Amino acid sequence: MLAAILIAAVSCATTKTVPQKLDDFVDDAEIHSGNYTMDDWKKSGKEYEALVMEYLEQPDKYSEDEKMLATRAMGRYHALILKSGLEGASSLLKGIGKILPEYIEGLSEGIKEGSVGLEGLFRDILDTTRLKKSVEDLGSALEGIFGPAE
Hints:
Elements: H1 2-14, H2 18-32, H3 38-57, H4 64-113, H5 115-125, H6 128-146
């Protein structure tokens, strides 16, 4: 009988609320997300969504401290997603940056070679004034990053 009481007491003491589970989940994600693959992010997202949905089913059953804990955990998880996306975008942009001059040269050559048909097409579907301004703005922004073109 005493053993059953002790087991019940221990299991009650270790039972966590959903906000605590959510906080622990995000703690774990913060530790391991640097090594997450796309599949890991998908799995993590599903687990996160399940915890948030469980929390949102009965948010009034939690104390104000637990609500704050859950809300902060949600914010921390979204920050992880943003960081991951920015790091991925940064890597992609670095890769593109290495080939961008050749790509633009090829694009330019391709347009010049077929300019007879393309010229009329672009004239009819594009606002060339806005396009020219956009290209100039892009050039200015790139010069701000890389310096003037040589």
